[in-house]
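Re: 6-O-phosphono-beta-D-glucopyranose structure - here you go.
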Amino acid sequence: MVIFGITGDLAHRKLIPSLYHLVKSGQLPGPLTLVGFARRNWKPEQLADEFRQSLAESLEGEAVDDALLRKLFDGAQYVPGDFTEPERYADLRSVLEKLPASNVLFYLATPPEAYPEIVQNLGKLEMHLEKRGWSRIVVEKPYGNDLQSAVALDEQIHRVFSEKQIYRIDHYLGKDTVQNILVLRFANAIFEPVWNNHFIDHVQIMVAESLGVGSRTQYYDSAGVIRDIFQNHLLQLLCLVAMEVPVAFRPDAVRDEKLKVLDILRPMKEQEVLQNTVRGQYTAGEVLGEKVAGYRKELGRDSLTETYMAARVYLDNWRWAGVPFYLRSGKRLPERLTQISVHFQRAPIFLFDWCHLSGNAPNVLTINVQPNEGIDLSFGAKIPGQTSEIAPVRMHFDYAAAFGKEPPEAYRRLLLDAMTGDPTLFTRSDEVRAAWAFTTRIIEAWQQHQPERLPAYAAGTWGPPEAEELMRRDGREWMNHPFPREPEC
Ligand code: BG6
């Protein structure tokens, strides 16, 4: 496995810890030799030491097993060099030729500007050719900046690697709770009959983060939440919730169905974008008891980049006609919470008194993607005693309680899938293009209508008032918790 950018943040936080766990659990499909390629002047024998600290951090208290760490870096190689220098790729090739391994997995953990250059150089030296075994490439997001640049990048990569060699990562697809969406829907027969516009009022999908942009201000300011989360994670979650049942659980059968969802997303004209989306930017506030600065303060300059967005979108097919999907994500919200809530319609006639009934109906199925992985189903139950009042209660499934363990880090699963050649959880070229086509229309409309300032929300609140208004207009409410709040009866 060749990691371009091995000295960087992704390798420290995700890749090496995940590989460490794969070695530990004995899940690797065969012997693995790591090859690092980056600018810093490291030596191969230094690699294990360089990663000990970050590994300890990611293990959260568990001690680093030194024997395992040594095993992971056993025989590891390091090629120091700039991604723009062709000679360094010759070095890389001679390193690879000396290894006994026949398969090679290239991993692009570099800034995206380097992708075209790296791929082109690999191509020039024919490292993509599958002479001895397979050759694959894993590409991290951001995959382009808009439709045009994504298509251009795709063409550059396709000049060297064929589609079946390319593994585009969306790490949300590696989360067990996300994979469980299809299991919930298609391994159980009770949900599918009500999973449509006859029974569902609306769907909310939320990726809330308490963190701010941290040290990634440069990247983030050019991306905003629409490129960072909406174009990929939010639209992928939407696909899994809304897709038709695939004919089999095979990579292309699943991805064909996801693509159809992206294709039927109703495109928005400029005015519709303005009516159906909200942008926001956080100002100073308090998150989880800590005082934090506003976005522009962190950035050190003025900016019109959104750190929050909400959108109402529609899918034009028979199953979903008329059902709004409300998608939202933001930084510096009150907590880290990713959830999908499916809001069912109300009973046609109320026979009972509800002690509390909000804008949303009582039956909500909530998929808690993180942090408290599980599923909740809420419904009305009679309050005990001499009363006919009804209150919302819930059935609750908790991953950790049911299986005795927390779901593992998404990257473990994805790395293993890339090694064993299963692309089901990776996004296909046509999916990425369709997601960008929809997203780019929103970006362009926003650019045409830049306000002097974006709507503000104080860090530690659930977004700007405009987002509340988007729901209120529809007679609905955002659900900021895994289940409807306990009523005050
Ligand atoms: C990444 C984004 O793709 O996802 C980050 O670039 C974001 O900005 C992260 O924080 C969230 O991932 P997770 O797994 O912590 O929800």
